[in-house]
Amino acid sequence: MRNSLFFLARWAAMIALAASSTAHAHHNYALYDRCNSVSLEGEIASIEWTNPHVLIDLRTGDATYRIEWAALPQLAQAHVSTDALKVGDHVVIVGSVMRDPEQKVMSLVSEIRRPSDGWSYARQRPSCAPRP
User: Which residues contact 103 (CB under 8 A, 6 or more apart)?
Assistant: First the structure.
């Protein structure tokens, strides 16, 4: 009995450690150029309304970017529904791209506009000051 409790406690600790390291790595925005916002214009090739972030593949003139938008609960608070954007929509998205130009990934999205009907999403741009 004592060995099985030790075994379960050890497994619980390992799972907790793995989960915390994954969550920490997930929010490492040091890979992004937070001080320079970039505007990408193109057509939505795919959109996944999932957690931890809504994912958009945006086809621009020369590349396809993976856009990591906000979490579903944040978008619900901003009154953004899952039918707000769809494949084929022409949009302008403003956010921070990865420092490595080979990586076509944008995060920290501060604005999305759909010029065809004036729909828009906006949130305050995060500070680019380094975190302590």
Answer: 31, 97
Beta bridge partners of 55: 48, 68
Mapped onto helix, strand or coil, the DSSP state of residue 58 is strand
Residue 10 domain-assigned (yes or no): no
Q: Which residues sit opposite 89 in a β-bridge?
A: none
Distance CA 61, CA 40 (A): 10
Give the residue with greater pLDDT, 7 vs 24.
7
Amino acid (one-letter) located at 23 = A
Judge contact between 79 and 13, C-beta under 8 A.
Answer: no
Structure tokens belonging to residue 17 = 């450690």
Residue 71 inside a domain? The answer is yes
Distance between CA atoms of 126 and 103, rounded to whole angstroms? 21
Query: What domain range includes position 79?
Result: 32-122
- 94-98 average pLDDT score: 93
Note if the pTM is more than 0.70: yes
Structure tokens at 44: 């939505």
